[in-house]
């Protein structure tokens, strides 16, 4: 497990370096900093408390972890998709947003839900196979 953590950490640091290098191309960092600050606030003030509350109130037992994970991923997908979802309709330039984003957002949420159900089922199967202690 330690090797996996080191590898994942190394990849994460490398990707942070790529992101930092891309910031050198930005002419006005104020907009980027406002966007990043807003994302942190949105996550810490709204998304995380709602996920934890929903996991606490709605789910008990082995399903709590997969449900919370699905809520976190679904919430993040929704936050990323909000600008497009809140401005439906035709664009002046059709090449700016050429895909059907609401449909693709729903497909992504369906995939998250499917993975959550599979994770819950695997937890149930693994839990049944373990001998009682």
UniProtKB/TrEMBL annotation:
Keywords assigned by UniProt, alphabetized: Membrane, Transmembrane, Transmembrane helix
Name of the molecule in the record: Uncharacterized protein
Transmembrane parts of this sequence: 33-59, 66-85, 105-126
């Amino acid at each position: 497990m330690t090797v996996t953590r080191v590898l994942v950490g190394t990849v994460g640091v490398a990707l942070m370096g790529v992101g930092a290098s891309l910031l050198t191309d930005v002419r006005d960092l104020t907009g980027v900093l406002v966007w990043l600050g807003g994302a942190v606030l949105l996550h810490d003030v709204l998304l995380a408390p709602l996920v934890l509350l929903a996991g606490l109130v709605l789910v008990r037992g082995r399903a709590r972890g997969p449900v919370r994970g699905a809520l976190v991923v679904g919430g993040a997908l929704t936050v990323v998709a909000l600008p497009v979802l809140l401005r439906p309709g035709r664009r002046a330039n059709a090449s700016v947003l050429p895909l059907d984003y609401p449909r693709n957002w729903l497909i992504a949420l369906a995939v998250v839900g499917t993975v959550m159900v599979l994770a819950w089922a695997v937890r149930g199967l693994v839990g049944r196979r373990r001998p009682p202690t």
